[in-house]
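Narrative of activities, Objective 1.

The group set out to show that a structural description can be obtained from nothing but a protein's sequence at a throughput compatible with the screening campaign. Below is one input-output pair from the validation batch, recorded exactly as produced.
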Amino acid sequence: MGKKFLISMLTVVFLITSVGLVLAGEKGNQRKGKYIYRNVYKACHDRGAVDSAKPAIGPDSKTQAQWTRVFEKKDFEDFGCKEEWDKLTDQELLDVFTYLHDHAADSPSPAKCK
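Output recorded for this entry:
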């Protein structure tokens, strides 16, 4: 009886840990996201497509729900620089999303892209 209970408890702990790791893995890296976001506009500016290397839209220009919708639909029209956005991998998009979402207007720490 005791051995079965121990195995059951270990299985439960393993499952809870596994689910936690999977959920934690879905979040991107904010620092990388900020770097990538700025480099998209720098590359776009270097190409001559925009007047400024500074990103057109800051993280605080939308709410977290709005950022979620933008990235779910992959609707980057408002950002401009379509060529640069199309080149980003899914992981890079996740990193940029994490940066923008975590610093949105309604987040605990809103930030402007400086």
